[in-house]
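Follow-up to my post from last week.
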Amino acid sequence: AQSVTQLDSHVSVSEGTPVLLRCNYSSSYSPSLFWYVQHPNKGLQLLLKYTSAATLVKGINGFEAEFKKSETSFHLTKPSAHMSDAAEYFCVVSDGSSGTYKYIFGTGTRLKVLA
Amino acid sequence: GAGVSQSPRYKVAKRGQDVALRCDPISGHVSLFWYQQALGQGPEFLTYFQNEAQLDKSGLPSDRFFAERPEGSVSTLKIQRTQQEDSAVYLCASSLERGDYEQYFGPGTRLTVT
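User reply:
Got it. Predicted complex:
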């Protein structure tokens, strides 16, 4: 079975400092992995997607993630946090084994950005 | 262009009432998903449609939950005899084709059962 584990439920950083949100995955084959962001009272927005083309994936708003098969990790990073980055972030794996490619979400990491 | 829309955005139901939640996917999108997001949790899969065919309903928590997409576009999630544990945000997502494609999410319907 496929799954993702987000290692931190809350992360606080100061504005202008780096962001690291950690995600580990479990999959019996090469997975498709995503990071989504959810701002309060807004829909989920795709930040970036990994589908085996390149291990370092660049997304919107300066975010990027690196797929590390040996560590089964897909951590999300950003060099410099902005106040507008405060939101809930979800690591997601696409479950192709079922034929539906439904998403399996992590439990989320709430990012707080301090002025 | 228009994204995925859902209505109503908020719904309060008394325990035991039936509710219907609507999803309008992006035009032309073949795949449609419903997810349930409890407070403080990540979304969990409920059901999947390819056009009008419901191919996977393994995530529906009970037989009180029913979903349909009769013409392969708009979908309705119906919950009969609502219970307090049904309180959650219900998210709809669509994607272009069946397969490993990005899912586009609607804003969700927040259901509160009192």
